[in-house]
Amino acid sequence: MTTPDPELSALLHESRQFDPPAELAAHANAQPDVYQRAKEDRLGFWADQARRLTWDREWDDVLQWELPYAKWFVGGTLNAAVNCVDRHVDAGNGDRVAFHWVGEPEDDTRAITYRQLKDDVCRAANALTDLGVRAGDRVAIYMPMIPETVVAMLACARLGAPHTVVFAGYSADALKTRIIDCDAHVVITADGSWRKGSINPLKPAVDEAVSECPDVRSVLVVRRTEQDVDWTDGRDVWWHDVVDSASPEHVAEMFDAEHPLYVMYTSGTTGKPKGVLHTTGGYLTHVSATCRLIFDMKPETDVFWTAADIGWVTGHSYIVYGPLANGVTSVMYEGAPDAGGKDRWWKIIEDYKVTILYTAPTTIRTFMKWGEEYPRAHDLSSLRILGSVGEPINPEAWIWYRKNIGGNKTAVVDTWWQTENGGVLITPLPGITRTKPGAAMQPFPGISADVVNNEGRAVANGEAGFVVITEPWPGMLRGIWGDDERYKKTYWSKFEGVYFAGDGAKKDEDGDFWLLGRVDDVMNVSGHRISTTEVESALVSHPSVAEAAVVGASDAVTGQGIVAFVSIKAGVDEEGDAGAALVDDLRATVARQIGKIARPRQILLTPELPKTRSGKIMRRLLLDVAEHRELGDVTTLADSSVVSAIADQMEAST
Ligand code: WTA
């Protein structure tokens, strides 16, 4: 366990503050009494939020809490898909656009109304039923950012079949591990996805993964990129063959509030990813309430855009379930930020009059690097709220975002949360909070969070410590799929009775939260969680590698960058071209086992790794090397010349 990064703590010197925009404050969904109301009656507050959904049967108890297991809205029944789609059609809003979908190739767009979405979800639910999918069965989804992905997720939800969406940038190997871990028997995919004008094939990865998953009986394939694909008769079916022809009538079954909705895999501190389990009633309540109060969603007028991938939790909660539960119109964009030009996003905002934009600091910093002229060339005046998520946002990026994208007039909300949380936990409210650039500010109403020291005691304002959540919340994970021990150990054993997030934070003199990054072996690269152990085990699986140590070095654009120190087995040639070829091969090995996102930014081949006398690799010193800092304390090392040699090598290589 490392203490929070002192450089990030320096953020606390930021002293600028921004009042909520007056116009927004006057009409905001969240008025200042919301905090008081939630404080006086936390469960009553959440029950009010839950009542904004449509229940078939209301709950008997709001919460049953037997540490560390929570049940929310006990005895209530509902259907998530009905809440996201049918009820808006039933309320007369079927003609409202649910998604303005923007494909990567220009002019490849679709507007999908709530009515069309309902028909498509029902068709897909019928088709999945014909493929044998029943309530409780897991379905794996490995898809591009296309409307069918949303349809597939909602069809699963409608049937009570928990989906597990695997980010399409993950490798066949990673997909296979996840399919096996949650024992999915059906996989939904596409032939490929578009990435900057070229095809990123998906079906071959599924073929490879499924060849080692004997229990997968059906692969449902959407045609998107239209290249030839291999076909296994009896197993593979085209979406357009079975979904398009299915009936748009489907009577939804109602499920218990605690019925599993999805499993989302995320990296932990060991090599094996964790299947984070979310259930129906509490999760939907949490994402729906946060959309309404943080993003101030007004379904009649807003156009919301979460620019993230559906393969991550941000996409689940803020592209699919949260916005749809509110019946708002969203934009969904398929491609890279610079596909068709570095102003592609700004063109989309202008074309669709986007009012709320939600994205990650790493993307904002990329835009900063590209320059202000790209947003300046477009009319972005429709925007009223800008959101940030995924990693700490540095004040410079916050200010740049507000000025160049928000025209110095929008609210900016820095929202802190995790896959395990389901929805946002710490955030400003745009019509209430006087924001500070770089601070996530305060727990959302109905959320109890604190910062504690190593003994679990609350720290004084101004001191750094660990983020804990002190009361259960509706969107919290209900467990790790198939690994109860790990659930208890990871989140509930560090401190008695509270949820341990694994993040460092500081509360300032006003008690506002500043998040300081992870305190464990999880890296955050462009807002993606990647464990050092996972990358290390991929590297050591290479026949030439003896040992590997991986650190997340701070990076001006991606937040952290992966730097690997690799020692090679005796007799392996690591000089000149042979060394360069080996490094390429190592990067390819990581891409194959995890995915391209986990490829190290830099790999240093070294004769030895620095170790303590008891043989433990000193990653802290390697981080100093990777960040070009003076080396910290080397007295516990068995041989301090090892690390100085590595430092010299690093300086020579950069
Ligand atoms: C980090 C993404 C600072 C944090 C929703 C957390 C943040 C991890 C913020 C979860 C933020 C997310 N400020 N750090 N606003 N938002 N993080 O599971 O370290 O992909 O633990 O969920 O991202 O990443 P995950």
UniProtKB/TrEMBL annotation:
Residues 33-84 form the Acetyl-coenzyme A synthetase N-terminal domain. Its EC number is 6.2.1.1. The keyword Metal-binding applies. Acetylated. Deacetylation by the SIR2-homolog deacetylase activates the enzyme. One of its GO terms (biological process) is acetyl-CoA biosynthetic process from acetate. The keyword Phosphoprotein does not apply. One of its GO terms (cellular component) is cytosol. Transmembrane segments: none annotated. Its cofactor is Mg(2+). It catalyses: acetate + ATP + CoA = acetyl-CoA + AMP + diphosphate. It holds the Pfam family ACAS_N. Catalyzes the conversion of acetate into acetyl-CoA (AcCoA), an essential intermediate at the junction of anabolic and catabolic pathways. AcsA undergoes a two-step reaction. In the first half reaction, AcsA combines acetate with ATP to form acetyl-adenylate (AcAMP) intermediate. In the second half reaction, it can then transfer the acetyl group from AcAMP to the sulfhydryl group of CoA, forming the product AcCoA. HAMAP family: Ac_CoA_synth. Belongs to the ATP-dependent AMP-binding enzyme family. This is Acetyl-coenzyme A synthetase. It comes from Spelaeicoccus albus.
